[in-house]
Design brief:
The protein has 461 residues and is α/β, with parallel strands linked by helices. The protein is built from 19 helices and 18 strands. α3 (30-50) crosses α4 (58-73) and α6 (129-139) runs parallel beside α14. Bound molecules: pyridoxal-5'-phosphate (PLP).
C-alpha cells in the first residue's frame, strides 16, 4: 500500500528486522548497512519535502540501500587490459611483474618474514640487505639503496648531500616528468639551491667548469630527458667529461637515469638507452632510477654508487620516511635475479612484450579478427613509454574496428570486466596485441564481443 505522510516512513529498526536486511548485514556488516538504510530513509524524507511523492515500499527501500552499499564497497583499483600500445603506461600501473616476482610477493605477504631479521646472528638485521647484494653484483657498484620510488630517491640524495648548498644542473635538463613532477621543484623541496647553466638547447663543458668554481657547490647532476627529444642545434658534454670534471673538483656527480635499464635496448631495434652499468663506468658517483620502468619490477627507487655517499643516505632521517615496503623488496629482488641469471627477456613481461616479433603480433590480431568476425589488421607502432626512449617506437600489428559510435564503444570497453583500454585514431578503434597479456586474451574477446553487440558497436555500412 502506498502512503504519503512522512510519519508513514518505517523506522530504521523495522527495516533492519527484515530478511533482506539480514542478508545485507551478512554481506556488508551491520554498521555499514545501518548507515546505508539511514541514508536511504533520509533521501526519501528529502524527496517528500520537495514534492508530493509517494513512499516506496520497504523492499524498494532496501533495494536502494543495497545500491548504496554496492557503490561504497566496489573497489576502484582494478586489474585492466592494456590495449593502448604503450608498454610502460604510468596510468595503467607501469610494469606487470614476472610470475616469480608475484609468487615472492605473495609468500612475503602471507606471513612473517626476515625483513629486518638476521637469521645467522639471531638478531635485528636490515631491510637494505635484500636487494643490495644483487644490485652490487649486477652493476659493480660499491653501494646500493632501495627506497619507495625514484622521485623520493632524488629527494633523498638532494636533501642528504646538498641541503642549504648548491646543485649544478643544465637548463637542457630542467624537465617536468609528468603528474607535475618537476626537477626544479624537487630541488627546492630538498632545500638545495639550483644553479642553472647553459641554454635550453646547448650546454658546454666550460659552463660546468665555471659553475663548479663557485662556492658551496655540493652536487653536479644530470637528469635523463625521459619524455621528449632534443633535435637540431643542440649539445651537451658527455657523461665521461662531466664525471672527470666533477672528480677534479671533488664534487659528487649524480645521474638521474629515470628509467634505468640493465639491458641494451638496441638489440630490439630501439635507440640505445644508457644502462645503469654504463652510467657507473662512465664515472657517475651516484645513479638513481625507477624499479617499475624499464627494469620491469615493482614500484621502487634505486640508488647505486659510491659507498661513502650511500652510507650518508642510509643514515639520513628522510631514508626512514621513504623506505621501501617488504612486498616491493620481495618483488624487486626476484626481478633483479632474472637479470643476474640472464633470463630477463624470457621472464619479465615488459621485455617479453618488447621482444615479441611482429609476425606473432600479426597472428594474434588475425586470431581476434577471426574469432570476432569483425575488424581488420594494420601495421602500427607500439611506444615504450614510462619515461624511457621518448619518441621511439616498435613496429606492431594493430587490430582495428570500425564502429558506429567509436567514443561510446570505447566507454563500453572501459566498463567491461576487466576494463579494456584501447585508443582511437581517425575515428577507428585500435587495439595493440603487444601490450595485451596472453592470459588476458579470453577476457578481451568477451569484452569486445559484448561491446560489439551494442548499438555503438554495430557495423558502419
Ligand atoms: C620517471 C622519472 C622519475 C620519477 O620516478 P618514479 O619512480 O616515478 O618516482 C625521476 N626522474 C626521471 C628522469 C624520470 O624519468
Amino acid at each position: 500500500m502506498v502512503k504519503t505522510a512522512l510519519s508513514a516512513i518505517p523506522s530504521v529498526d523495522k527495516l533492519l528486522g527484515t530478511n533482506t536486511a539480514a542478508d545485507l548485514v551478512a554481506e556488508y556488516g551491520r554498521p555499514l548497512t545501518l548507515e546505508a538504510i539511514r541514508r536511504t530513509l533520509a533521501e526519501i524524507r528529502e524527496q517528500l519535502k520537495d514534492q508530493a511523492e509517494t513512499i516506496p515500499d520497504s523492499s524498494e527501500m532496501l533495494q536502494r540501500a543495497r545500491e548504496i552499499l554496492v557503490s561504497w564497497t566496489t573497489p576502484t583499483l582494478l586489474p585492466a587490459i592494456n590495449a593502448t600500445g604503450v608498454v610502460l603506461h604510468t596510468n595503467l600501473g607501469r610494469a606487470p611483474l614476472s610470475e616469480e616476482s608475484i609468487q615472492a610477493m605473495h609468500a612475503i605477504a602471507q606471513g612473517y618474514s626476515t625483513l629486518e631479521y638476521d637469521i645467522i646472528k639471531g638478531k635485528r638485521g636490515s631491510r637494505y640487505t635484500h636487494a643490495e647484494k644483487t644490485l652490487l653484483r649486477l652493476t659493480g657498484a660499491e653501494g646500493a639503496l632501495v627506497v619507495n620510488n625514484n622521485a623520493s630517491a632524488l629527494l633523498l640524495v638532494l636533501t642528504a648531500l646538498a641541503r642549504r648548498r648548491k646543485v649544478v644542473i643544465s637548463r637542457t635538463q630542467l624537465i617536468e616528468i609528468g603528474g607535475g613532477f618537476r626537477i626544479p621543484d624537487v630541488l627546492k623541496q630538498s632545500g638545495a639551491k639550483l644553479v642553472e647553466i647553459g641554454t635550453t638547447n646547448r650546454v658546454h663543458l666550460r659552463d660546468y667548469e665555471n659553475a663548479l668554481a663557485e662556492n658551496k657547490i655540493a652536487l653536479l647532476m644530470r637528469a635523463h630527458r625521459s619524455n621528449f627529444r632534443m633535435e637540431g642545434f643542440t649539445s651537451e658534454p658527455s657523461l665521461e667529461e662531466l664525471s672527470a670534471l666533477s672528480r677534479e673538483a671533488e664534487i659528487p656527480f649524480l645521474d638521474d637515469l629515470g628509467s634505468g635499464s640493465f639491458i641494451d635496448t638496441a638489440q630490439f631495434d630501439l635507440k640505445h638507452e644508457m644502462t645503469v652499468q654504463e652510467s657507473l663506468s662512465a664515472g657517475a658517483d651516484l645513479v638513481c632510477f625507477s624499479g617499475d620502468k624499464l627494469l620491469g619490477g615493482p614500484q621502487a627507487g634505486i640508488i647505486v654508487g659510491r659507498d661513502d655517499l650511500i652510507a650518508k643516505l642510509k643514515k639520513h632521517p628522510l631514508a626512514r620516511a621513504i623506505r621501501a615496503d617488504k612486498l616491493a623488496l620481495a618483488g624487486l629482488t626476484t626481478t633483479l635475479m632474472h637479470y643476474l641469471k640472464d633470463e630477463a627477456e624470457r621472464k619479465i613481461p615488459i621485455w617479453q612484450m618488447i621482444s615479441t616479433p611482429t609476425e606473432k603480433l600479426a597472428h594474434r590480431a588475425n586470431v581476434w579478427m577471426k574469432t570476432l568476425g569483425r575488424g581488420s589488421s594494420i601495421k602500427g607502432e607500439t611506444a615504450v613509454g614510462g619515461g624511457s626512449l621518448p619518441g621511439e617506437t616498435l613496429p606492431t600489428h594493430l587490430f582495428v574496428l570500425k564502429v558506429r559510435k567509436p567514443e561510446k564503444f570505447l566507454k563500453h570497453l572501459r566498463e567491461a570486466s576487466p576494463p579494456i583500454i584501447a585508443r582511437l585514431r581517425d575515428n577507428l578503434v585500435m587495439l595493440d596485441p603487444r601490450t595485451v597479456l596472453p592470459e588476458q586474451e579470453e577476457d578481451l574477446i568477451v569484452g569486445l564481443q559484448s561491446a560489439l553487440a551494442t548499438k555503438a558497436g554495430s557495423r558502419l555500412d
